[in-house]
Specification:
Strand order of the largest sheet: 1-2-4-6-8-9-11-13-15-17-19-21-23
Domain Protein kinase: 420-703
Protein name: LRR receptor-like serine/threonine-protein kinase
Distance between the termini: 65 Å
Transmembrane segments: 347-372
CATH architecture of the domain at 497-789: Orthogonal Bundle
InterPro entries: Kinase-like_dom_sf, Leu-rich_rpt_typical-subtyp, LRR_dom_sf, LRR_R13L4/SHOC2-like, Plant_LRR-RLKs, Prot_kinase_dom, Ser-Thr/Tyr_kinase_cat_dom
Radius of gyration: 31 Å
Largest sheet: 13 strands, parallel
Number of strands: 38
CATH superfamily of the domain at 497-789: Transferase(Phosphotransferase) domain 1
Pfam families: LRR_14, PK_Tyr_Ser-Thr
CATH class of the domain at 497-789: Mainly Alpha
Length: 795
């Protein structure tokens, strides 16, 4: 082939050519006009010699494994009209010299690892029709020179870290049809003038940014727009009070997770689908709006899954706007009469009621004490293992499918997953296979294919989403339930994957370089998981149990915000909730959490145990700890837990992830999380803390390990009212400095040799932060007693 000096076209697309591009390509094939090597499994760098192909008009090297920098020499190809280097592993920045490629009509550098900023000289490419820089790590401001690209039709800057306001003058871009700015860090308000001249615009994506202020009115009425996504910003304002015009094409709008408010207007009739969830709209929903709108988590009257009255009233009162209180009458007490008799009653009545209340409390306490003493004698209490909610009690017709996202056809699912290609397969899950999908509008989603032999096994999960709404769960975007043999659920795509894959991530193509999450991010993840479980355990009635809390079920978005997934096994907690609290208070024995078949029962304490393993995995970096329950992992747990002590911070350095670079203050936070994890792993369910107290501890980790002044400690022993740590009935105890037990020898248990490496910002004895000679201190989380830790794998 090296002798074909007159070769003009070389197209080997999708033909496997493993290896690198020879350097002689740019020397001996000087007559090449088209070089198409997309999807050829090529690796290595792009040869600089390609810059010698002066006749080259099309260069397509996309969808390979190319590494290294984008060669500056490519800027010498003045006749080049198409340059596609997308879906590779290229690094570095976009060469500023690309401004010399004046005949370029398509520039696609998407889905690489490029960084830096957009060169302002790109604005000289006046023939450019497609500019795609999405899926990189580019940052800084977007240069105003992009507004000079008068021929531009498609602009995609999504999934980067661009910031600042959208300061482009878009009026010149009169031919643009698709503009995608989603998943960046843009902020500020948007002016309607930006879009006034864009009469051809069809697709606008502004989602996952920090835009604020009033939503431009013009975006409601542009007749050519058929898809707009402005979700997860801070836009505010009301729907325009304008009538719908029949000439406008039906559109799909996503305005969820913003701060819109007010009543629904006639403009709603324009949309085939509009997502207004997680806003503050109010009033009554018309039948027309009900057909096309997704409306949960608002302030609508008579609708299910809405915000609380308190949340809605607070939002409207802060803005001094009227709120109808969900249509309920506001009861106003009559003005009091200030006469002498009423004043005497005001004094006497509270005294009498207070005395009666005190007597009632004493009687109730005595009755509970007698009842629990009798319960103590019952040794064989039957335990029932509750599985997922039976499908026969959730008829499909009872589910409001419109509130569960958009309905997709089977053909749309096939196209989105490329007919369930192996390249799109993310993983095989217990409830179904997960595939990466790309919708027709370009939005990435995750599609779960359910082929369960149990009929309608997907209904419990749909039932969960129809009744529960919280930002800490993976959003359900849609479904496809028309295929008899297979069902499909469509979820929002989480850019950072799950915790098991994000805790350590590959930083180079050879797979040898691993970079771990920093401590601040790990603590943020721990708090997020605790918030999700706290909602299930303490804000749902009856309390819900997740039953599958592990690293692989904790998903992370582009900002490492937690979205808890694997919700197919969530069900209500069994047993008497109040009895469980009394048992916790009085430290009575509790039955095993395993049923006759050995499966975990539906108890919140089981979730707490699983959360403890996740926290310990974040502290130690021991991958697979929260997922595995084999003998090796149990043995590791038995060896590791003794290194977690409230009395000795330095012991912890033997098991802390050695990749963490932390100073003295951060080490105390790591220490606090380890103590919380150990308390969660107590083999006695009744002695594990409630999730709401775990959340408080993780939000204020230094309070777990730092000493209090003697006066405040004495005060806490007298009254714990108002203290969140007082809720840890069985998980705190009074300790003295002489109560320090012996500890095992310091033997590192991590995957790397040696203990943790951390920077000492302050020279200080670790015992000085938790001990004071002759002083007693109140510890929030205690160490389980030795007899409690005999079988830490009980769950």
């Amino acid at each position: 082939m090296a002798n074909f000096s007159s070769l003009g076209y070389f197209n080997a697309s999708r033909f496997s050519l493993p290896g690198s591009i020879p350097e002689w390509f740019g020397v001996r094939l000087s007559g090449l006009k088209v070089l198409d090597l997309r999807g050829c499994s090529i690796v290595g760098g792009i040869p600089n010699s390609l810059g010698n192909l002066s006749s080259l008009a099309v260069l397509d090297l996309s969808d390979n494994g190319l590494t290294g920098f984008v060669p500056e020499s490519l800027s010498r190809l003045e006749g080049l009209s198409v340059l596609d280097l997308s879906r590779n592993l290229l690094v570095g920045s976009v060469p500023a010299s690309f401004g010399f490629l004046r005949n370029l009509t398509l520039l696609d550098l998407s889905k690489n690892n490029l960084s830096g900023f957009i060169p302002p000289d790109i604005g000289f490419l006046t023939k450019l029709e497609v500019l795609n820089l999405s899926g990189n790590s580019m940052s800084s401001l977007v240069p105003s020179q992009l507004g000079d690209l008068s021929s531009l039709v498609d602009l995609d800057l999504s999934f980067n870290s661009f910031s600042g306001s959208l300061g482009l003058d878009l009026r010149v871009l009169r031919n643009v049809r698709r503009m995608v700015f989603g998943n960046n860090r843009f902020s500020g308000s948007l002016s309607g003038k930006l879009f006034a001249e864009l009469t051809q615009l069809q697709v606008i994506v502004l989602s996952h940014n920090d835009f604020s202020g009033e939503f431009p009115d013009i975006l409601w009425s542009m007749p050519s727009v058929r898809f707009l996504d402005a979700s997860e910003n801070m836009f505010t304002g009301t729907l325009p009070n304008s009538s719908w015009t029949a000439t406008a094409s039906p559109a799909v709008y996503n305005l969820s997770e913003n701060m819109f408010y007010g009543d629904l207007m006639d403009v709603m009739r324009r949309f085939s689908v509009i997502d207004l969830s997680n806003n503050y709209f109010k009033g009554k929903v018309s039948e027309c709006a009900r057909k096309s709108a997704i409306l949960y988590r608002n302030c609508f009257r008579g609708e299910s899954s809405q915000r609380s009255v308190a949340a809605c009233a607070s939002f409207y009162s802060k803005r001094r706007l009227p709120f109808d209180n969900f249509g309920l009458p506001v009861k106003r007490p009559p003005p009091p009469k200030f006469d002498e008799k009423s004043q005497r009653n005001t004094i006497i009545l509270p005294v009498v009621l207070g005395g009666l209340g005190l007597i009632a409390i004493v009687i109730i306490f005595l009755l509970l004490l007698i009842l629990c003493t009798c319960k103590r004698r019952i040794t064989n209490q039957r335990v029932t293992s509750v599985g997922p909610l039976a499908t026969d009690v959730i008829p499909k017709e009872s589910l409001q499918l419109l509130s569960l996202g958009k309905g997709f056809t089977y053909q749309q699912i096939l196209r989105a997953t490329r007919e369930f290609s192996d390249a799109n397969l993310i993983k095989h899950g217990r409830s179904g296979d997960l595939f990466l999908g790309v919708l027709e509008c370009g939005v990435c989603v995750v599609i779960k294919r359910i082929s369960s032999p149990v009929k309608d096994a997907y209904l419990p999960e749909l039932n969960f989403f129809s009744n529960v709404s919280h930002p800490r769960f993976v959003p359900l975007l849609g479904h496809c339930l028309n295929n008899e043999s297979e069902r499909f659920l469509i979820y929002k795509y989480m850019l950072k994957g799950d915790l098991s894959s994000s805790l350590y991530r590959t930083e180079s193509s050879d797979g040898d370089s691993l970079q771990s999450l920093d401590w601040i991010t790990r603590l943020k993840i721990a708090v997020g998981v605790a918030e999700a479980l706290s909602y299930l355990h303490h804000e749902c009635t009856p309390p819900l149990v997740h039953r599958d809390v592990q690293a692989s079920s904790i998903f992370l978005d582009d900002k490492f915000e937690v979205r808890l997934g694997s919700l197919n096994e969530v069900c209500a907690q069994e047993g008497n909730i109040h009895q469980s609290r009394i048992t916790r208070l009085l430290r009575l024995p509790q039955t095993s959490e395993q049923g006759p078949s050995g499966t975990p029962t539906t108890t919140c304490a089981y979730d707490v145990y699983c959360l403890g393993k996740v926290l310990l995995e974040l502290v130690t970096g021991k991958m697979g700890l929260s997922t595995s329950s084999d003998g090796t992992m149990k043995e590791w747990l038995e060896e590791a837990l003794p290194y977690i002590s409230i009395h000795d911070k330095e012991l912890l350095t033997n098991i802390v992830d050695p990749s963490l670079i932390i100073d003295e203050d951060l080490l105390e936070e790591v220490w606090a999380m380890a103590i919380v994890a150990k308390s969660c792993l107590n083999p006695r369910p009744a002695k594990r803390p409630l999730v709401r107290y775990i959340l408080k501890a993780l939000e204020n980790p230094l309070k777990v390990v730092r000493e209090e002044s003697p006066s405040s400690a004495r005060l806490r022993t007298v009254s714990s009212k108002g203290s969140w740590s007082a809720g840890l009935f069985g998980s705190w105890r009074w300790c003295s400095s002489s109560d320090v037990a012996s500890h095992p020898a310091a033997i590192p248990l991590n995957k790397a040799e040696g203990g943790i490496s951390y920077k000492h910002s302050v020279t200080q004895s670790s015992q000085g932060s938790v001990q004071n000679a002759g002083g007693d201190h109140l510890y929030i989380f205690s160490e389980p007693l030795e007899e409690d830790m005999v079988r830490p794998h009980k769950d």
